[in-house]
Write a structure and sequence with these properties.
- The chain folds into two domains: 177 residues, P-loop containing nucleotide triphosphate hydrolases (Rossmann fold), CATH 3.40.50.300; 69 residues, no CATH class.
- It has eight helices and nine strands.
- Strands 5-6-7-3-8-9 form a six-stranded mixed β-sheet, with helices on both faces.
């Protein structure tokens, strides 16, 4: 794995106009091609971290430094809801960011075709959102992010609303894609088991104020499969993350690492 930082957060704080301290002095370095998950209680600032990285909000203090030039940096964001256009079919939904970027139609068609194949949607290109399951809608949402060919992928609880079987399948599919494409991924989730299964590292956040209280390396090889999910190593990592989360929630202002 490349250890050059893709991005570094240096003493980043976020204070909203009403005085709420969402984040305080958050320090974090994420190497290129690493898969990092963030877990923590509701309101701890997980989504705020993603929005700051994406440039959707501005830091109140501190800085976000990039290992890539602005020209080389290509971010994509997958939100909690698929938010598809109901009047557009799968192909048209995926093509939207290319249309907004004024990519020529011929080039856009090629990119959409490649992305459809990448996420296994080739047979659904003419389907409309109302004809798709929740898992399929999320695949379309992910495809819409991937069609821009990003190198940094930000994901905010994309599988939170799905049933466990669908979620498990999409976890495995996402991991396969990451293994092929080697994006830098920052993935927010409430699910400890999902975080451990997917990640090189799991960051545990505490609340009041939002900050990182544990940075746990998941030292298990890829590719990962069902055998990893049922292993003692997996169980031990889940236990470690769970314990760190419990400490953060029971001692919100004193926990640190």
């Amino acid at each position: 794995m490349n250890h050059r930082p893709a991005l570094t957060l240096n003493y980043v704080s976020k204070v909203y106009p009403n005085g709420t301290v969402a984040l305080q002095d958050l320090n974090l370095a994420i190497p290129e091609a690493q898969f990092v998950s963030i877990v923590g209680p509701s309101g701890c600032g997980k989504s705020t971290v993603l929005r700051l990285i994406a440039g959707l909000e501005r830091v109140s203090s501190g800085s976000i430094d990039w290992g890539l030039t602005p020209q080389a940096r290509k971010l994509a964001f997958v939100f909690q809801e698929a938010a598809l256009m109901p009047w557009a079919n799968v192909t048209e939904n995926i093509r939207l960011p290319l249309k907004l970027a004024k990519i020529p139609q011929k080039d856009a068609h090629s990119l959409v075709e490649k992305t459809l194949a990448l996420v296994g949607l080739e047979k659904f290109e003419r389907s409309y959102p109302r004809e798709l399951s929740g898992g399929m809608k999320m695949r379309v949402s992910i495809a819409r992010a991937l069609v821009t060919q990003p190198n940094i992928l930000l994901m905010d609880e994309p599988f939170g609303a799905l049933d466990e079987i669908t979620r498990s399948k999409l976890n495995s599919d996402l991991l396969d894609l990451w293994h092929q494409q080697r994006w830098t991924v920052v993935f927010v989730t409430h699910n400890i088991y999902e975080a451990v299964y997917l990640s090189n590292r799991v960051l545990v956040m505490g609340i009041n104020p939002g900050r990182i209280v544990a940075d746990i390396e998941i030292d298990a090889p890829y590719p990962r499969s069902e055998s990893f999910r049922t292993s003692s190593v997996y169980s031990e990592y889940c236990r470690e993350v769970s314990q760190s989360l419990a400490i953060a929630m029971n001692h919100p202002q004193t926990t640190g690492f």
